[in-house]
Fold histidine kinase.
Amino acid sequence: MQDAARSQPPTIDEATAQSPHDANAPFVRLWQGFLTGRVLIATALLLLQLALLSVQPGGNPLVWLVCLGYLGLTLLVRLTAREQPPSARAGVHWLPVIGVDIAAICLLQVLQTGPLNYSALLAIPILISAVLGNLTLALATTASVTLLTLGWVAWQDLAGRIESTQAYYQASFACAGYFAVAYLTHELARRVRRERHLAQHSSRKAQAQEQVNALVIRHLGEGVLVVDPQFRVQQANPAALHLLGLADAHALPLALKEHAGWQRLQDAVAQSFAQNLPISAAIHLQSIGQEGMTGLHLRTWLTEVATPSDATDAAEPALLQQLCVVFLHDLREMEARLRTEKLASMGRMSAAVAHEIRNPLAAITQANALLAEDLAQNPAQQQLCRIVGQNAERLARTVEDVLNIARAQQHIGEAHAGLLDLDQHVAQACQEWQAQGQPARSIQLLLDARARTVVFDGEHLRRILVNLLDNAQRYRSNAQQPHTLQVLTGAPAAGQIWLQVWSDGAALEPTVQRHLFEPFFSSESRSSGLGLYICRELCQRYDAGISYQRLSRPAPHGPVEGNAFSIVFRAGAASALPASLFDQIVV
């Protein structure tokens, strides 16, 4: 679990979080460098005393004690100091560093018996305070060094060891230089710190923007590819990889030349590079692992990005590389989206038109009933009246279905369901469907529902079955061979009752299967794409389910793969069926 968590990319909050350690990284290195330098200086002072001992035997033993003590204290501070420098404010926490340095150097200057002058080493605590501390600490350290320097000159003057005027001038100039160095060094460090913070702030904003862009592209519905002039895909989101038939975790970069089915995509990118213009076109690709072609709408956009240069000169301008950003849309999804929008805009109009049809249709039905009474003695005219009544009733059911779909009121309680003998109704619907075809249609019936009944409306079951049979007839291999189109029913003793329409048509593409029961989605431009959607809605109204499977069925020459649409019914008591849909007229 921990390894998986570490492998995840940083979140936006992590990218924008400020790390004090990162902000003070240069000053942390300076702090460590100062501590190491103090140890080296203390070691050098001790070695210097050894060298002086060989030249001038004797000497003050206190000098040795000061050098050894200074070396021990610097080593102790170097080994025990924290990684981060102390607070920049003036305080006692600076005594182990600045205080020890000033005290040790001053003691060496006072105790030395030779001509050596250690006052130049006082610049070290001044630099430490100016770089790592605030201005108060820097000026206080410099003032302390100034007072000690002037005090030492005054003491030497009183002892008559130096020429007073020249020594005072020299000490004054040195102390003025200390103040100048302290102030300028502190301002330089402050500017470096400010520029560091600005750079880190810009870096955090860039990282956050990069995280947002990656998040948007990763969850974008359309495919996005970034292709270089060598036709290598440098970046791709999961939607684009899916359209190409690749896994979401496929390694990048990948070459468009790897798969022959991507040739048209490569040609479009090459055309965009050659013309140096964005293009928009419809292409067909063969995705990996799929037999058919996938229709895509392609848009390209050219951009230039800076690439790292091998030049050592920082002033050398960055090299620019032209890239092509490709946006891919599935044409079927675009068409389905447009049709769905049309359906939404037509919904209210369909409901209004259906309401307007119901009233005159009710009047036609009533007039037809009265006419049938007047023509009771004429059998031929009675037959015509019955035809008018049956078609008016069927039209009323169609109007009711349109109203239910438009209002999204496909509920079981509103359906006029009854108990149907499945085998009987399926056989009757298949006979009617065969009789309507010219030339005659062949079909193989394998009905084995064992006289079981299902909760469904007979007209709706006929409509579903006719729709499925029309689709199977369109895609079957041979309309004259009954085994190429089979209708089956079954009712296991302990299972659900089912109906299946099977044909030996070609396999459906995975992209088609995902949207098979959506409205206005069809693999053919001449089809409205509503047939299977209405079948699903009607099945859901009666708590039934419809699904698609690729199944193998026996044939005279062996098993054959085909497309099967299966419906699973529910069993139960029938709801009350009204005598007519016109018992209640909506005005």
Observations:
- The first strand starts at residue 223 and ends at 227.
- Confidence is low (pLDDT under 50) at residues 1-20, 408-414, 573-587.
